[in-house]
Fold:
Amino acid sequence: MNVIGIETSCDETSVAVISNGKLTSNLISSQHFHVDYGGVVPELSSRAHLQIVVPLLKKALHESKLDIQDIDLVTATAGPGLIGALLVGFTFAKSLAYSLKKNFIPVNHVEGHIFSGFLMEDKPVFPYLCLVVSGGHTLLLIVNSDYDIIKLGSTLDDAVGEAFDKVSKLLGLGYPGGPQIQRIAENQNSDFVDFPVAQCKNEYDFSFSGLKTSVIRFIQKNYGKVENIPADHIPLIAASFQKAAVKALTKNVEKALNNFEIKTLSLVGGVAANKLLRDEFVKLASQFNKKLVIPSLEFCGDNAAMIAYRGLKLFEYLQNFGNKHDYFMNQNAYPNLNGNTFIRSL
Ligand code: KG4
Ligand code: ZN
Structure:
């Protein structure tokens, strides 16, 4: 069974191949030119996907020693994401499947991240507690099986990656903000400012817009404007922000670890690259005596390996149970750019 995965939901074009259960290629082309604009420009993103998706597919097939005719299943991200960007990969993948007379499976991007731990040698064991942290999402979930995902909480406003990006921009550190904040905050005093951690009505929800506002207020109150911040204070503010953002995530994870019986703890998504957050997860896993699975960096940010993996699981579901689940009921209505999902509320 040879599966192609295509991911174009934001600013990474990625094509992957899973051949007989083994990942044989996972090519990721990042659109670095957005740096000049301080954030992703959707139209430019779509155009860049369009230029690179076919060459990437050819290269992925070559790396996998496969011919296009050897492909049995085509999968692509259906949503959520930038609409124009999604349409490029989705339409290309669907047309490819149609022309090859092969099956096509649309994949929810967040579900891709949720199961990305299975791309590792040491895999999660169900049920597992999963924190999804990216530029667009912040979700705490209990994953009971491949087809049963319970949402405990999510962000009420900004995603945590978005908060990193906005604070980085505010401090003049550039885009994407996560890696910049991490770099400048390293070995700095994170007690310089005691930024608040939001308390939400649902104890598993998150909120990051207040934290961002606190950073703005702190700057206004103490320096007047950003330009007046002494250079040696920037790393201290960044470190204090990073500490508060990580605390906001781990406090909910700790609560869930106390309240639910789970076998594994998993941290996924672009922000899972953050060293402080990873270190805190190592501590929590050890404290609660749980197995820990954090994907390697290649599988934390947006990648097509996770889409191919999830697409294959959805294909297996169709074969075993038919298309009765809501996820597949609207197949004809695809592209559903919000992305159908197996995630349900508690
Ligand atoms: O999963 P991802 O590649 O794309 C989305 O689906 O959003 O995540 C991108 C996000 C960006 O907000 C970026 O700033 C953040 O992940 N990020 C980090 C780090 N590396 C990437 N945030 C904190 N620390 C990092 N080291
Ligand atoms: Zn993502």
In short: The domain at 2-114+300-345 is CATH 3.30.420.40 (Nucleotidyltransferase; domain 5).
